[in-house]
Amino acid sequence: MLPKVNSKWLCSVSADIAQDHDLPVGDQVRVRNTATGQIALYTIGAIDELDGDGTIRMTSSGRKRLGSTASFCGEFVEELIHASDSNTLILAPHGGRIERGSDTLAENIRAAWPGQTPPSSWICRGWANSSFSAGAYDPWHVSSTDINRRSFPGLDAISDLEFERVVSVHGHGGPGGACGFSRKLNRKCNFIAFTVRSV
Q1: Which alpha helices (DSSP H) does the chain contain, by range?
Q2: Spatial separation of the C-alpha atoms in residues 150 and 77, rounded to whole Å
Q3: 3-state secondary structure of 6
Q4: Is the pLDDT score of 1 beyond 60?
Q5: Where are the alpha helices (DSSP H) in 92-185?
Q6: Buried b (16+ CB within 10 A) or exposed e, 143-170
Q7: Which partner for 189 in 51, 117, 145, 180 could form a disulfide, CB atoms 3.0-4.6 Å apart?
Q8: pLDDT tens profile 122-171
Q9: Which residues contact 173 (CB under 8 A, 6 or more apart)?
Q10: CA proximity to 98, closest of 81, 120, 121, 123
Q11: What Pfam families does the entry give (predicted)?
Q12: Which tens digits make up the pLDDT trace of 168-197?
């Protein structure tokens, strides 16, 4: 179980929100700041039975992800490309402007894959306009270990399938990235560092 609400990536929701939307701890939710219109993605760290109806709580650093004065015009999308005879899966959960270059690298790996059957791919992309100083990382990043298949229909559709190889593409601080290999979706993988050039 996730800790209650101890990081900027987590929120708690009142019992009515959880019940009305069938949201257990660990699911991801989009939260909108009604004053500014800004949206960010959070992982539910707790369902608080004592909170009044319609209550969402988060740390002060979590609230900063929603901004207070900046204008936010961005979006988050999920894309699944799957062939039933594919034995390889490429993941890029932080594409777009979240971890720049990770989605492009995943697409390039897929396009260059040897053999008759291209790999399946699950790629998420998040964007923010330039007036939001934190970029797309703060509003749309969910730690890979917290990603819940119930929150992503494309991922959920393939989560029970067996792949011989899974390649997971991620960025890390600055112009770099990491690429992991694993045989199963739920297995931890060792990461190999590589450089992603900014475009």
Answers
A1: 15-20, 60-64, 102-112, 137-140, 153-158
A2: 15
A3: coil
A4: no
A5: 102-112, 137-140, 153-158
A6: eeebbbbebbebbeebeeeebeebbbbb
A7: 180
A8: 999 887 765 545 678 888 899 988 999 999 989 999 999 999 999 999 88
A9: none
A10: 123
A11: Gamma_PGA_hydro
A12: 998 865 444 455 544 444 443 333 333 343
Measured distance CA(96)–CA(74) in Å, rounded: 11
Does the CA dihedral 99-100-103-108 come out positive or negative?
negative
Residues 6+ away with beta carbon under 8 Å from 51: 12, 13, 14, 15, 57
Handedness of CA 109, 112, 115, 119 (dihedral sign): positive
**Cα–Cα–Cα angle for 43, 48, 54, rounded to 5 degrees:** 85
For 8, the token pair is: 């900027």
Count of residues in the chain: 199
Strand, helix or coil for residue 17: helix
CB-count exposure of residue 84 (10 Å: 0-12, 13-18, 19+): exposed
- Residue in this structure with the two tokens 């701890």, named with its chain if needed: 25
